């Protein structure tokens, strides 16, 4: 077998090929792209003997995505993706001095693969539709996170020179279409105080708000509240920055809505979409996020425990002598854990069995966040079973063990 370390950069790859004894057979720097992949094939081909094929070539690299990784997997090589933190720890074993170079990292990755292959996770190629779902789902979530950041910046700016606007638009939310339109129309305290009930009401009607007259009167009253302010020149500068932020938020709202349609469209094409949508607390967008992060490669998760460990919902136990402590996993896929947290929160509101499980945990003095993680952990196990058998969620089957426990007690 051949063991290859691939230290990748934006435009090139430093590669080292080793045999099973750890001897270096070849070291080369390859360009990114078709030319680089072609030369990579030629490089490993020189060292393969007899009937050995691509499956006898094992590659270690610090990423699991991108055209380069996809090309290696498609060619039949065994590709192992390692976390940069794992690689850094192995580098410390080989070099106590702290020396680091691209060629040295390629050698370290090849050695790590040769000596610790049983501890590394191979890249399991997802289907094309799953990859497409990942692209649009992540882009959609990223835009939502960006909108939140810009909203917080907008709120901070308003509090600096126009706090009445924060109070006036609090019920509408600062990312709402109507609040943004009113801020764009009147970003200064003087201009906002001149807004009439008719002007405010028209904006609220376009946003399809209820009780337009009452809301318009409340907003007008809040905007005309006498408060401490900034000098006129400073206020004008703040107003200019607020207009720019409002324009960014309006654009983000439009693109988020557009991408949401793309997420639903791509997710709906996936053969497991029905199974995901049957899970408690999961809709099209949330289902797409969970599918995107778990992937759909066959055999990636050998059992429910391995899926839970990857999700980061399973607890982490540390034991030394008589001391034993249980922690939440802080190293996890942030996108996946965020989606599972949202699923658990929503499932408690709509599924009585999920709510009963949560209440049982709370009765044991488990705090809210810890109980929510345990609910999410259980839901991941249920999802794994449903995907394994390709059957929709069935409440009676999923929670039958709890009924048996209750009956026994």
UniProtKB/TrEMBL annotation:
Pfam families (UniProt xref): DEDD_Tnp_IS110 (PF01548), Transposase_20 (PF02371)
Domain Transposase IS110-like N-terminal: 4-163
Domain of life: Bacteria
Annotated signal sequence range: none
Annotated InterPro entries: Transp_IS110-like_N, Transpos_IS110, Transposase_20
Transposase IS116/IS110/IS902 C-terminal domain segment(s): 277-358
NCBIfam families for the chain: transpos_IS110
Protein's name according to its UniProt entry: Transposase
UniProt organism field: Catenuloplanes nepalensis
């Amino acid at each position: 077998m051949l063991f290859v370390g691939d230290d990748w950069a934006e435009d090139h790859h430093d590669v080292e090929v080793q045999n099973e004894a750890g001897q270096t057979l070849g070291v080369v720097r390859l360009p990114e792209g078709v030319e680089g992949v072609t030369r990579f094939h030629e490089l490993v081909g020189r060292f393969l003997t007899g009937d050995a094929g691509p499956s006898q070539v094992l590659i270690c690299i610090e990423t699991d995505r991108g055209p380069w990784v996809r090309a290696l997997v498609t060619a039949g090589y065994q590709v192992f993706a390692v976390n940069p933190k794992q690689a850094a720890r192995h580098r410390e074993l080989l070099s106590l001095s702290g020396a680091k170079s691209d060629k040295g990292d390629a050698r370290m990755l090849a050695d790590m693969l040769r000596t610790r292959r049983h501890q590394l996770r191979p890249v399991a190629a997802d289907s094309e539709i799953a990859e497409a779902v990942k692209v649009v789902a992540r882009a959609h979530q990223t835009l939502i996170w960006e909108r939140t950041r810009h909203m917080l910046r907008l709120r901070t700016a308003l509090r600096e020179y126009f706090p009445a606007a924060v109070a006036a638009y609090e019920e509408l939310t600062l990312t709402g279409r109507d609040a943004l339109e009113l801020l764009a129309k009147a970003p200064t305290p003087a201009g906002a105080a001149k807004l009439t009930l008719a002007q405010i009401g028209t904006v609220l009607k376009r946003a399809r708000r209820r009780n337009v007259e009452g809301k318009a009167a409340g907003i007008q009253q809040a905007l005309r509240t006498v408060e401490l302010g900034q000098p006129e020149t400073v206020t004008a500068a703040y107003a200019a920055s607020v207009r720019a932020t409002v324009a960014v938020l309006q654009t983000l709202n439009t693109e988020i809505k557009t991408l949401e349609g793309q997420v639903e469209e791509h997710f709906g094409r996936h053969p497991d979409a029905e199974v995901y949508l049957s899970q408690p607390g999961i809709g099209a967008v949330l289902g797409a996020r969970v599918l995107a992060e778990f992937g759909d490669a066959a055999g990636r998760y050998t059992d429910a425990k391995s899926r839970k460990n990857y999700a980061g919902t399973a607890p982490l136990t540390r034991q030394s002598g008589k001391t034993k402590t249980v922690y939440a996993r802080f190293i996890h896929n942030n996108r996946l854990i965020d989606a599972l947290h949202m699923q658990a929160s929503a499932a408690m509101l709509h599924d009585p069995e999920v709510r009963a499980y949560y209440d049982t945990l709370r009765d044991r003095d488990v705090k809210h966040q810890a109980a929510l993680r345990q609910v999410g952990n259980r839901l991941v196990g249920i999802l794994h079973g449903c995907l394994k058998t390709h059957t929709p969620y069935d409440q009676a089957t999923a929670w039958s063990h709890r009924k048996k426990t209750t009956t026994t007690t």
